[in-house]
Structures are given as C-alpha cells and as structure tokens.
C-alpha cells in the first residue's frame, strides 16, 4: 500500500534546500552586521565586513575560472584570511584544502598534486616552504600571498632586503597575487554558489600518512553544517560566545568551529602562534569563553610563569581531545578557572564526534573516581547517529562490560564521504556499513566507550594483548611524569614487551627502577615496561604523540 504521506508531497525548491554552513555567515551579516566577528591584534572586523570579504574572495576565484569540483589549497596560520577562506572558497563552488603548516615540502607537494590544486593561498612567512614544495609538483597552481599586517606584513625576503638596504617592492612570482589586492578585485555583490546538493564536497583534509601516503578525507556541506551546530550544542555556546584559536584551523577545519561561531554570532580571537603569554593576555582582555586544544596546550597554559597568568574571575570552557589529561593537570586547570571536557574523534568524522558527557552527581565523587570517569571518551555527539564497539570480523557488538575489547565504529551524517581517489581504502573503511576507526576500546555498562589502543599499537606479549594506554595511564599517575608513550619492543622470548618513553616534569626526578616499581604495584607483571627511555617525545603539530617515530626508534636503536 502506498504511503499517503509520500503522495503529492514532493520535494521542491520551496521546501528543500541543501544544508550548508555558508548560510550561517550570510544570516549573521544581515541580522548582526555591526557585531565584531574577528579580533586579530589591533584589527576588528564586523560580520558585515567578514561576509563581504568572503564574497569578494569567491568572486575573485571565479574570475580565475575556479568553480565546482576545483580545489583551492591554503597554507595559513590562525589568521582572518584563514577564516575568510573557510567561506569564500566554497562560496566559489570550490573545495577547501587546508595544509598543515608544519609539514615538509615533499608531503605538501604530494597533497597539492593529489588534490589537483588550482590555487594556493599561502602566508608570507611560509612562501619559501611553499616554493620548495612547488618545485617538486606537477601542479602549477596560481599563488596568492597573504601578508599578516599584525606581524609586520612582510614576507621573509622583503624583510631581509629591507634590512640590507635593498629596495624590494615584492617577492611575488609572475603567477602570484597579493591577497588584499586579489580581494579588492572581487565583487561584493557576487551571487555566490550554494551547493547543488548538500552531499557536495566542502573540504578535503589529509591524514598524517603514518603508514604510507596521506589519504584525502572528503567532507560534505551537510556534515559540516551538522557538526558546526553540534559543537554549539555540546559546548553549550550562548549567543555572542568568544572563541580563542589555540586549535590549528588546518586540523579538521578547526573541528568545524570556523562555521560554528557564525551559527552563534560569536567572535573569533585569532592567535597566530600558540604561546603562553598571548593566550593569557587574550583570555583576560577579550573575555574568552571557549577554546580547544590537545593536552599540551593545557600544559602550556598551566605551566606559564605566575607573572604571565591572569585572574580570570569566571569559568572558561576548554575542550580537549587525544589522550586523557593527567589527574593533576585537570585539577590545576580547574583551579585556574577552566572547565575541561574530553572529546574524541578522527579526521574522518570531522574532528570531535564523541563527548564525555558529565553528570552533576559525579561531582560528589572522590578525585580518583572522577579521574577514571574523565578518562573515558564518552558517548555520541549530537549529530552522530551510531557509535559502537564491535568485533571487526563478525561485526557483532562487544558486551557492555568495560573489559571486552573491540574496534570503535561510527555511523552517521558526520562521517566523511570517503577517501579522495582511493576507492580501495574507502571500501575497507566502510566495510559492514560502519566506519572502522582503527581504534580499540571497550563499552562500559552505562554505554560510555573508552579507548584502549590503536589497532596497530596493541602489544602482543606471549599471546596476551596489552593496552599501551592502560600502561600510560599508570605512568601518568606518577607525580614526576609529564608525558608517557608506550610501544612494543621486540623480544626473543615473548615476541613483544612494553617499552615506555617518558618526559619528566621540569622540577621532578625519577629513575627507571622507580617507575618500574610504580607500575609493578598497579599492573599485572607482564604489562610492566621492560625498558624506560627518558627523552623528548615527538609530537604532531596538533600535539598528538607520533608513536610511529617511537616504533621506528625501537626497531633501529633499542632492539
């Protein structure tokens, strides 16, 4: 029998438009045109200005012939231009490709070629690196140089020529424009392009490529729209929230917060470099309400000299991802005025898709129990439809016992379209109609998931699976340990044994024997690290520990 609610009730332009976060900015430019949208040093930009400049960028890109299906790459710091690119590039119909500013030239070149970049917008400070990368590419994109006036506005060569007394008007190559001049050529009344379908790509973000070439993760307009709104709900962001950019905007499009802030008519406080003094200054002077970052950003804030810290007199919401912060750091952050919320996600799910939703009654528990609860990754983000831990072979959910390990799986509208030009990897990632994260975890009886390891980081010793995260949690509980990372060390007898890399707090000391005894008191004997290495631990630009570098070191130097 035909469903009567589907009869003569068809979709049409009047009742169905594709969802896109670009509409947030247009709305706020109309409703709150004079509200401050961007703060960057002495610069203040209203929503009217923000919108007009984004439209001008779209218009100028269209003037170059850029349109639907083209890629515009950007390598920028957390500056106003980066925010404008998050709107102006997709307004032209193109796909935004944000490049990690700390990559080497070879990896940048791979991304530019793989994404088929037609245009590159690059910060003046990064021009030499970009030119080195372009020398390795087949692509010949049009170059646009952004000069940040809040840091002098000059590219390195201009500054060098100026110091040497040589007059140099520009360092721009023949196929290159100045960003401000490029925008000035655009039409502020340009009829920018809505997506034809909300499934259309809005951006591409590349994974770290730790096991081969980076994979291009494609986001669609619908997912960006929903995750942006989900951020506002999860973060309880009221109208006129003020967001400090300590999270790189190149990382998962800044977890979609460039679009979130327009949804709540908020203010972006740009921060070109993540350093303790500018952070504390911005927190105080601009009444910042929210910020995000890895635990290393919390450590930077917490470890700042007393002369740098400010008395905030209010609670600031801090959202962190990656490994759970040590209990002592969480306590210090709370004392300083920060409420820390633990998130979890991956590039493939637009950044954060899981949140450790806190229950008020948990505040009455002792500190140790609270720390254990905070160590859990949590439950579905508002726009995520499915989160489970499954046996990847049978695709059957594991028991909710907090002990049985399986693979964390995602399903919903904030899961990527797939990997660009990589159908094999896409099909593998979506096997069984779930996204396979590669993370191993458990589900507790209350439905909260907790990570136990990456599938490639699990240590198999004498046939027993050992969670490196479990060992790291024990090491973090030692007062002298600032950072810990555990990887597998090849062993003739057991196959693999745990090896711990440790960074100590600056004012503390600890020996390998002391830490080994500490672990032995808290772990089964086969889980206790057999070797300790005290040295700086390599991290990505977003603060994540690079275990692949540690595994390489173990294989080449310690085996």
Automatic annotation (TrEMBL):
Biological process according to GO: fatty acid metabolic process
CDD domains assigned to the protein according to its UniProt record, in alphabetical order: ttLC_FACS_AEE21_like (cd12118)
InterPro entries listed in its UniProt record: AMP-bd_C (IPR025110), AMP-bd_C_sf (IPR045851), AMP-binding_CS (IPR020845), AMP-dep_synth/lig_dom (IPR000873), ANL_N_sf (IPR042099)
Lineage top rank: taxon: Bacteria
Family: Belongs to the ATP-dependent AMP-binding enzyme family.
Cited Gene3D superfamilies: 3.30.300.30, N-terminal domain of ligase-like
Sequence ranges assigned to domain AMP-dependent synthetase/ligase in this UniProt record: 26-420
This protein's name: Acyl-CoA synthetase
PANTHER family: ACYL-ACTIVATING ENZYME (PTHR43859), BUTANOATE--COA LIGASE AAE1-RELATED (PTHR43859:SF4)
């Amino acid at each position: 029998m035909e469903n009567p609610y589907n009869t003569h009730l068809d979709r049409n332009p009047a009742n169905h438009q594709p969802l896109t976060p670009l509409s947030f900015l247009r709305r706020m430019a109309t409703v709150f045109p004079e509200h401050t949208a961007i703060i960057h040093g002495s610069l203040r930009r209203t929503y009217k200005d923000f919108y007009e400049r984004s439209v001008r960028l779209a218009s100028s890109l269209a003037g170059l012939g850029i349109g639907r299906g083209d890629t515009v790459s950007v390598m920028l710091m957390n500056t106003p231009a980066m925010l404008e690119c998050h709107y102006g590039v997709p307004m032209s119909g193109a796909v935004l490709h944000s490049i990690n500013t700390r990559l080497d030239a070879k990896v940048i070149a791979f991304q530019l070629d793989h994404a088929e970049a037609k245009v590159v917008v690059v910060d003046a400070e990064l021009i030499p690196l970009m030119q080195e990368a372009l020398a390795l590419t087949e692509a010949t994109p049009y170059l646009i140089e952004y000069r940040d006036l809040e840091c002098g506005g000059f590219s390195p060569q201009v500054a060098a020529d100026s110091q040497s007394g040589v007059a140099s008007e520009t360092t721009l190559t023949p196929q290159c424009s100045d960003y401000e001049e490029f925008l000035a050529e655009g039409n502020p009344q340009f009829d920018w392009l809505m997506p034809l379908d909300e499934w259309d790509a809005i951006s591409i973000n590349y994974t770290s490529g730790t096991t081969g070439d980076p994979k291009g993760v494609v986001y669609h307009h619908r997912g960006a729209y929903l995750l942006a709104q989900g951020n506002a709900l999860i973060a309880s962001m009221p109208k006129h929230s003020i967001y400090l950019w300590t999270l790189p905007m190149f990382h998962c499009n800044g977890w979609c917060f460039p679009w979130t802030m327009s949804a709540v008519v908020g203010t972006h406080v740009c921060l070109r470099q993540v350093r303790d003094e500018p952070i504390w200054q911005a927190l105080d002077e601009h009444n910042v309400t929210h910020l995000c970052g890895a635990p290393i950003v919390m450590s930077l804030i917490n470890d700042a000299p007393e002369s740098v810290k400010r008395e905030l007199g209010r609670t600031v919401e801090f959202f962190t991802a990656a490994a759970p912060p040590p209990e002592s750091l969480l306590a210090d952050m709370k004392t300083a005025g920060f409420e820390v919320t633990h998130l979890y996600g991956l590039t493939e799910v637009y950044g954060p898709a899981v949140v450790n939703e806190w229950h008020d009654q948990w505040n009455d528990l002792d500190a140790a129990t609270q720390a254990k609860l905070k160590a859990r990754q949590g439950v579905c983000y508002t726009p995520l439809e499915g989160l489970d831990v499954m046996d990847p072979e049978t695709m059957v959910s594991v028991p909710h016992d907090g002990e049985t390990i399986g693979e964390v799986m995602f399903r919903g509208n904030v899961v990527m379209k797939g990997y660009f030009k990589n159908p094999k990897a896409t099909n593998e990632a979506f096997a069984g109609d779930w996204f396979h994260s590669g993370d191993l975890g458990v589900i507790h009886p209350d439905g909260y998931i907790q990570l136990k390891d990456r599938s490639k980081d699990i240590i198999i010793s004498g046939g027993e699976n050992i969670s490196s995260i479990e060992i790291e949690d024990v090491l973090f509980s030692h007062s002298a340990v600032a950072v810990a990372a555990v990887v597998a060390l090849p062993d003739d007898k057991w196959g693999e044994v745990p090896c711990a890399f440790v960074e100590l707090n600056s004012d503390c000391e600890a020996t390998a024997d002391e830490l080994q005894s500490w672990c032995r008191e808290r772990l089964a004997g086969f889980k206790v690290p057999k070797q300790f290495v005290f040295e700086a631990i390599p991290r990505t630009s977003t603060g994540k520990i690079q275990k692949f570098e540690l595994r390489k070191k173990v294989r080449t130097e310690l085996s």
